[in-house]
Write a structure and sequence with these properties.
single chain, mainly alpha, Arc Repressor Mutant, subunit A, DNA-binding, nucleus, transcription regulation, promoter-specific chromatin binding, repeat
Amino acid sequence: MDKKLSTMSHDPEVRKGPWTMEEDLILINYIANHGEGVWNSLAKAAGLKRTGKSCRLRWLNYLRPDVRRGNITPEEQLLIMELHAKWGNRWSKIAKQLPGRTDNEIKNFWRTRIQKHMKQTESFQQQSNSETNDHQACTSQVSTIAEPMETYSPSCYQGMLEPFSAQFHTNPDHSSCCTNDNTNYWSMEDILSMQLANY
DNA sequence: AACGGGTACAACCGCGACGCA
DNA sequence: TTGCGTCGCGGTTGTACCCGT
C-alpha cells in the first residue's frame, strides 16, 4: 500500500509550474460542461498534462467563479485573527467563514502579514526591553504575544481578542497605551490596532 | 538604468482520512 | 479486513513583482 505513489507523479509528461491561459481555459470549459470532481480522471479526460491534484488546486484557489480576489478587508482581517485564535491553523475551516476566500489565500495572508508584524512586535519589544530594563510592567504584558508564531498557542491571545473586537467595531477613538489602572504599557489591542493601521 | 533585497502569492509536496470493492 | 484511488489539509517552496539604493 502506498497511497502517496498514487498522487505523486514521476511521469515526464506531467506538467508542473505556473498554469498557462490555455490550460486555464481548458479546465474551465471542461468543468463547465462536465462538472468538477474525480480530479485525476478529469485531468486526463480534459487532455491536461497535469495531475488531478494540480487541477483541483487551480480550480479551487483561482478559477472558481466565486473566488474573491483583491485585498483582505479590515473586517476580514479581524475575523481571521479571531478565528485563528479559536481554531489555530485550520485554514480551510477559517476559509469557510469568509465567503469567496480560499484557505490558501488566508494561509498566505497570515504568514506574510500577521507573522511579519508579530516578528516586528517581538523585535520592538526586545529593543524596548533592553532600553527599559527596570520597567517591568511593559515586559509582562507584551511578551505573551511577542513569542514566535510557532510556539505560542492560540489560547494565549484568545481572551485578549475579545476587547479588541468590540473596540474595532464600536470605538475607533480608543486611546492608546494606558489601562484603567494607569499602568503605562501597550496592550494587545493597541498593538493590533497599530498593525492593522499599517496595512 | 541596473541591481539586490523584501514581499506577496501561486503552486507543489507530504500526509492522513475516507470511501469503495 | 485489506488494498487502492481519491480528496482535502497544512506546510513549504518558487518566482514575479515592487521598491529602495
